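Recall the central idea of this unit: under ordinary conditions, the amino acid sequence of a chain determines the structure it adopts. In this exercise we apply that idea directly, starting from the sequence alone.
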Amino acid sequence: MFDTEIKSLKSLNDYLVKLVENRLWLKVIIALFLGVGFGLLLSPQNGWISKETADVAGNWLALPGVLFLKLVQMIMIPLIVASIITGIASNDKGSLKKLGGGVLLYFLGTTIVSVSLGTIISQLFKPGRFLHQQALIEHNDLPSVNSEDTGLSFGLENIPDAISNLLPENPLASMVSGEMLSIVIFTIIIGVAVLSLEDSLLRPVKLLLSAIQEVCMTVVKWSMLLVPIAVFGLMAQLTSSVGLSSLSGLTYYVGVVLLGLLLLVIFYLGLVALLGKTNPFQFLKKIRDVQLLAFSTTSSAAVMPLSLKTAEEELQVDKTISNFIIPIGATVNMDGTALYQTITTLFIAQAYGLEMSLLNIIVVIVTIVAASIGTPAIPGGGVVILASVLSSVGIPSEGIIIIIGVERLLGMFRTAVNVTGDLTACVVFNKFYGKTPILVNRNIVNESSKQ
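Accordingly, the structure predicted from this sequence is:
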């Protein structure tokens, strides 16, 4: 009897090992739920341990996640530079002109769709109406705001300076400070210049950049070994520090944001089916590893190497297209963040009792479209930009404290949507400009190559 139980347990263990082996998405899901459960046990709200002890334990649990993010961010800039220049240099000037202009219009169009969707949902459901202004005043002594004193302004005179500041005076300084948008623009200019070189000079440049790319991807493979442990630690720290009770007070607002993000994903799947001529369910199945990693790390930049790998190996996107779109998309294509910022801006305005006219809402949309282009692809980057958006349109930036308890949770969802948007763009443009078919059975490709 005892031997039978041991054998059954061993069989179960063997089955679980085989099930999890080489399935990153499953490992991430298991680690995610275990992290949430362990974090709830550590939460000071239970009264089992003090807040100081919980904070120390949370920091130690988050260490693998911090190391993972540092490891990936360490090679992020050389990978972005190598990928963009390689993607540009692999095209001829005619196709680059078409691809570059098309990508720019596509990103701008999807961003406008996302903020418009956020505006419509906010006006329909009005998530801020449930928060009374007096409650805000009592919360950390937030100032009362008179709607007559909230003239929303959009500084058109500042636009020339903002555009000129996109070009870095010192590219190395931009790399040190992590100004990703400036780095991308600098890299695009260098890539176009490289394209004008003679073939004898262009060949060694492409060879060097390809070698840099391979080295970076090797580092990424090493870092991926930490992913399940990293997810467990980050989720445990988040849950222990935030707790479930502090999340429940903003349930309606969270629900509205998640509804908007879901509708945005449905819009992406429509693009995949109509423009990319690809089965949307197969597309979702292929990108689940990237989505789960983005959900866990809340950083588009951290998952960029895996996005490149998934686009090329799983979605069968032409390498020149993925190398061009994904590094740029991780910096400028932040549709999920733009939708979140739109809903949150209008939510805070509603919470303060501010009346938003159609003109004011248009100003908000324009501001968020411009701001989302420069949103840092790092955890919490959306909040940094959101503060500037609020102040620029006359809404008290102190209102961010209302949503700070659920910001990390929403950051997980919007980051997953952001990377879904980048991979959607890859599928769409591969249909029109790619040299390799999408979602091809690799066995067929291998057999044909042998013949």
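Residues 400-433 form the longest helix (34 residues).
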